[in-house]
Design the sequence.
């Protein structure tokens, strides 16, 4: 049985917060809200509890988890060293939607980091997440609280849909305010490298650190034979059931392409401004110049398209700057790396 624990705010829901924290401390599984997406939380130091996260999600064992902390004392427990660059990032972006990969300490079992010598650490900003971690008084391993392969969950309703009966509790803390998963950067190599783009942008990271490399898997289909630095990026991710086709081009080129290609049961996933020009059903992820709004609505829109029974979805291709890089990274995976260039009608992988 999965218990639903409603938490409006941390001041009037002490009982629910204690209950969630006690389940985690006792080795159980709880879906908790964070500012990015919901996380499926367990004690990061408890091998058995972490193993059950992989089982509940149907997640491949070689895909490591993020360890969530609620203060910097916990950071020094889960990592072997805190390099200067980590402190620079922590000062600027924590608590917040940034995950930093660092050398792992022996307190974190191999199952949590999928056998890697590094560990991913994040200090979330969401007060409910922070309060549950504090009360559980352990570092908390949490992947996104979706079934492996489906879009991440940004509301308690999404978690109920995916995880009811599979976890001990779901904390309903409302909708997530960022909507896409955290930015992941590794400081384990010689030069900092972006592994997954998010709400903290590449441009912002470069302002703090100077040179930041970008892992090829951020924008390209990983070579199945190459060694990947971010295991999560090799999986087809964020995939709704419908077939997603990413269409690159101006508004006119996009609308022309969609209008001349769509048939029954096919939808557009677009910006507000595109809607009047489209002759097929559409779902908008927000205003064209508001990438934060688009991030908030992306996963819910992909889930709604499945509910509508969409067979094919023509998604407008985001710009690859700012938060747009995160949207592009998620959508190109949903589209299995197929991009159609509307101007020429050619397809590129
Ligand atoms: O916003 C988020 O990051 C959410 C919330 C719950 O915090 N969590 C999340 O976790 O998105 P997950 O498991 O869905 O994604 C974690 C990503 C994966 O791509 C994984 O491969 C990568 O981080 N990762 C974790 N540990 C790593 C490590 N030691 N080295 C390289 N990549 C790592
Ligand atoms: Mg995930």
Sequence:
């Amino acid at each position: 049985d999965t218990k639903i624990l409603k938490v409006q705010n941390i001041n009037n829901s002490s009982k629910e917060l204690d209950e969630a924290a006690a389940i985690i401390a006792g080795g159980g599984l709880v879906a908790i809200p964070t500012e990015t997406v919901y996380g499926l939380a367990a004690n990061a130091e408890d091998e058995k509890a972490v193993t059950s996260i992989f089982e509940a999600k149907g997640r491949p064992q070689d895909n490591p988890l993020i360890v969530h902390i609620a203060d910097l004392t916990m950071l020094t427990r889960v990592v072997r060293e805190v390099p200067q660059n980590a402190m620079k990032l922590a000062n600027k972006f924590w608590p917040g939607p940034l995950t930093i990969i660092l050398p792992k300490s022996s307190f974190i079992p191999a199952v949590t980091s999928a056998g890697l010598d590094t560990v991913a650490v994040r200090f979330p900003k969401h007060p409910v997440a922070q309060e549950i971690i504090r009360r559980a008084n352990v570092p908390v391993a949490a992947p996104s609280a979706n079934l492996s392969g489906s879009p991440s969950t940004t509301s308690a309703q999404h978690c109920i849909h995916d995880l009811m009966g599979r976890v001990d509790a779901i904390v309903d803390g409302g909708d997530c305010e960022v909507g896409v998963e955290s930015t992941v950067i590794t400081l384990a190599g010689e030069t900092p490298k972006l592994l997954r783009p998010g709400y903290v942008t590449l441009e912002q990271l470069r302002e703090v650190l100077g040179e930041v490399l970008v892992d090829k898997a951020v924008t390209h289909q990983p070579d199945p034979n190459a060694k990947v630095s971010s295991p999560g990026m090799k999986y087809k991710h964020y995939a709704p059931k419908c077939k997603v086709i990413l269409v690159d081009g101006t508004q006119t080129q996009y609308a022309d392409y969609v209008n001349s290609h769509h048939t029954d049961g096919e939808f557009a996933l677009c910006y507000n401004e595109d809607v009047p020009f489209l002759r097929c059903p559409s779902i908008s992820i927000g205003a064209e110049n508001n990438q934060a709004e688009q991030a908030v609505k992306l996963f819910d829109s992909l889930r709604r398209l499945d509910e509508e029974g969409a067979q094919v979805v023509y998604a407008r291709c985001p710009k690859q700057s700012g938060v747009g890089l995160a949207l592009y990274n998620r959508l190109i995976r949903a589209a299995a790396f197929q991009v159609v260039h509307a101007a020429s009608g050619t397809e590129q992988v």
